[in-house]
Amino acid sequence: MSTYKLTYFPVKALAEPIRFILSYMDKEFEDVRFERENWPTIKPTMPFGKVPVLEVDGTQLHQSTAITRYFGKEAGIAGKDNWEALQIDIAVDTIHDLRQAISSFWYESDENVKEKKRNEVLKDVVPFYLNKLDELVKSNGGYLANSALSWGDLYFIAISDYLSHMAGIDIFENHPNLKSLKDTVLGIPKIKAWVDKRPKSDL
Amino acid sequence: MSTYKLTYFPVKALAEPIRFILSYMDKEFEDVRFERENWPTIKPTMPFGKVPVLEVDGTQLHQSTAITRYFGKEAGIAGKDNWEALQIDIAVDTIHDLRQAISSFWYESDENVKEKKRNEVLKDVVPFYLNKLDELVKSNGGYLANSALSWGDLYFIAISDYLSHMAGIDIFENHPNLKSLKDTVLGIPKIKAWVDKRPKSDL
């Protein structure tokens, strides 16, 4: 049996999809959450100086999307053929485009630049993406792709608190199909068990 | 036989990986390059208001990485198992992290902010990533992953002119393993044939 050790800041954000998929697969993992003051020491020990990093039997893996996709395949929730896998990948990278737009102001240090970007992104980009994603889920029987649960759905719902926190809104408000997808994913018993026991954090 | 229609600006950038993989597979495609002045008209007709978009038998696909991965699987250059596919995905998303860092100043409209970001990114981020990627290729027998050609190598080399142009440097200079990978990919006869006949553009 493989051993899993996940290293990240003490938040959900980009590590949470890995926590979701490992929980979904009923795999135990060591959930290492370091304090921000220790990051300068930890950073040089990570493959490309970034986290989350998942060690599988001592081998360091980075890139949360790639890792979640890998386990999604292993779990059998990555589409029934290459075309279906493509539809999941498209949806997930679209969510990353939304995330990048929100991150572009959230991680901006100059307050004037931040405010200008925030206004642009919240006025146009965020509503556009959320409406389109809501339509996508509606047209896919309540899921992001292929009218079936996939690792993409787990990825999206796992980072949704992070997106809402950065944007300063509840991304599910007025988006009934996204809200329904959230309820579906959080209703999966193994996901629910994880969410009930995980440490509390804002993002 | 499927028909392929690719729509993008008149540049290489994010469409070039799709052009590379379709050329590698010897698939004919319509290469629609619209002028920037027509973008406002075209934008609302695209799935999430972005390009490149590839129409396969009339079905619109977006997200260049997802599309290139899909064809990579169909072409048999996507790893021999899930673990190998993961290594390719990690490498490609790492290249996207590098691209995002470079894009963060390239697409900045405020000249003061742009200059400050450019200095930070070119001084630290770009050399760090290029050195690490050079090591990665060295340790993988001349490829990004698994000591074998993959769609990830095609993706990287296809966008390399875009990366160099935005960064204002030749990303292959002083990175002999990356340069060797470039020569390998551009030496593939079907890729060479495409590169020889493609329209010229800076990025």
From TrEMBL, chains A, B:
Entry-linked SUPFAM superfamilies:
GST C-terminal domain-like, Thioredoxin-like
Query: Which Gene Ontology molecular function entries are recorded, alphabetically?
Result: glutathione peroxidase activity; glutathione transferase activity
Tell me the Gene3D superfamilies matching this sequence.
1.20.1050.10, Glutaredoxin
The residues covered by the GST C-terminal domain are: 81-203
A single GO BP term for this record reads:
glutathione metabolic process
User: Which reaction is recorded as catalysed by this protein?
Assistant: RX + glutathione = an S-substituted glutathione + a halide anion + H(+)
> Where is the GST N-terminal domain positioned along the sequence?
2-79
**EC numbers on record:** 2.5.1.18
InterPro entries recorded for this chain?
Glutathione-S-Trfase_C-like, Glutathione-S-Trfase_C_sf, Glutathione_S-Trfase, Glutathione_S-Trfase_N, GST_C, GST_superfamily, Thioredoxin-like_sf
Alphabetically ordered keywords of this record: Transferase
Task: State the similarity comment.
Answer: Belongs to the GST superfamily. Sigma family.
Q: What is this protein called?
A: glutathione transferase
